[in-house]
Each structure stands twice: as C-alpha cells, then as structure tokens.
Amino acid sequence: MGIAREAQTELPYLPSSSLRGKIRSVLETQNPDEAGAFLGERFKDGQQPTEGEVWFADATLLLFPIASFSHQFVWITCPLWLSRWNRWLDSDELKTLFNEWKDILNQEGAIKAISSVSGKQIYLQGALLQDTDIQIIAKDTVCWKHFDLLPDGNGILDLKQKLLILSDADCAAFVETGLQREVRVALEENQKVVQGGSFRSEEAIPSETILFFPWGLKPSKDKRRTDPVRESLSKILQGRLQFGGLEGLGRGWTDNKTVEIQSVMGD
User: How far apart are CA 80 and CA 86, in angstroms?
Assistant: First the structure.
C-alpha cells in the first residue's frame, strides 16, 4: 500500500483524504442518492460544498512487520505508536503501562527491547538482541486484552509469540529498512527507451502492517436519507477495502475492524 510521510517524524501514514475518498467511492456505489448528504456534497454546478455527518482521521502505524533470521518475522512497535493508539482508547491502565515501558527503554545501556518473543537471541535485519537485552512481557499484562481487539489476519497476528517493543528511535530506523521501494519508469511509445530520462520511486508499507484510524459520526441532519448510508459504512469498516493505485495488481487490500469507544463528543 502506498503511503505519505509525517512532516515531524517522517513515519509512513495513510492520509485521511485517501481513506475518505475510497470510502466515498464505495458508499456512492451502494447508496448513489444518499451518500452525498451523509459525506457532504462536493463543489459542483456553482453550489458550495456541504458538511457531512462523518469524519475520518489519518491512519498511523501501530504494528510493523520486520524480517527475523531466528523467528521468520516479528511485529515491532514503540511507546510513541502505542500512546497515539491509547489517546483514543483512553485507558488509564494502558497509559501507566506504556509510560513504564518508555522509561525502561530510555534508560541508557539497559533494556533494549520489551518482548513476547521466546529464545535466547532475536536476530533482526541489522541487529542482534541477546536475552540480557530483553524484558519479557508477562502473559497477564493488561495490554493483551486490548491487543485481542485487533484483526488477527486469519490467525497470522500472533502477538503473544511475535511482539517486540523498541524505543521510538530504533523503531523508526527499522521502519526505514522495512519499507518496500520500487523504481518505475515511463517508456517511449513502441520503444524500450525511458521517456524523458525520468525515473520515479514509490514507497509502500509491507503486508501484515497494522494501522489504526479514528473515525466518528456527527448528529444526523436527515435520518431518513442518511441512516441507510450509516449502516453501509458500519459494514464497510468491518470488512475488506482496497487502497492505493495498484488495485489491478492485487495490492492494497486491508482487513478492517471497528472498535467502538465512548466519547463526550458523540459517537
């Protein structure tokens, strides 16, 4: 799946505009007459755009898969990503736990990783962790009941065996090595010659990456028209969607799951 970059961290993310655009296209197919009222009418025929009844935030990283020579692959995360996630879950017990992990990982020359991965050594791309570098996550730690809410990829997401929590800096470094990069060229018509001598590079997050994005509903302005669209949206965000510009190659498929949270701002 293609990505953008955060200005302050340079971490990959999926912009909310991409999410909204894809969801709009699906909803307009399923509810052609009502989708505009729900999502907000576009600027057309001299009429001003209108405000919709739903909002979407950017999709940011939560878990990132990296190759492991000793464990095939593991998922990495860090206090920054976890704290962003808990900003919306608003769990006091998770906040306390993530702050504890952050303090442990920020101690110079001490623990380098907090992990559920078994074994005396963990071989990663460009790094080796010894058992003395690792603090094990207990099976009764409060994080597991929250991780269980994530889509498990038909059993692939085995976090109790494959989770590795690193410092923010180390996590960012591994993401750079783990991104998929492709160089593409445009050829002259009927010739195997690069058009204009130009190349372009594309970056994509690897399969099995877990991102999260908050979304919410505003009060309905016309329940008769928009309630069917709300039902369609709920189903869409509990199923599969395809993002990115390479749909014809079968890329960009996502498995989505909505976890409801209580908010003083509404749904």
Answer: 10
Please, which residues have CB within 8 angstroms of residue 131's CB and are 6 or more apart in sequence? 119, 120, 121
- The Cα-based distances of 63 to 75, 162, 266 in angstroms read 6, 11, 28
pTM of the model: 0.87
Q: How many residues does the chain have?
A: 267
* Helix axes 92-106 and 79-89, enclosed angle (nearest 10): 170
Q: Average pLDDT per run of 10 along the chain, which is 267 residues long? A: 85 92 92 87 70 92 94 95 95 96 89 92 90 93 94 86 95 92 72 64 86 92 88 92 71 88 55
Query: What is the model's pLDDT at position 265?
Result: 46
Question: Taking the C-alpha atoms of 148, 150, 153 and 158 in order, what is their torsion angle to the nearest 10 degrees?
Answer: -40
SS3 label, residue 158: coil
Q: Is 139 exposed, middle or buried (0-12, 13-18, 19+ CB in 10 A)?
A: exposed
Integer Cα distance of 5 and 79 in angstroms: 19
What is the identity of the amino acid at 213?
F
**In the chain, where does DSSP find H-type helix?**
16-30, 35-39, 79-89, 92-106, 143-147, 159-162, 168-178, 223-236
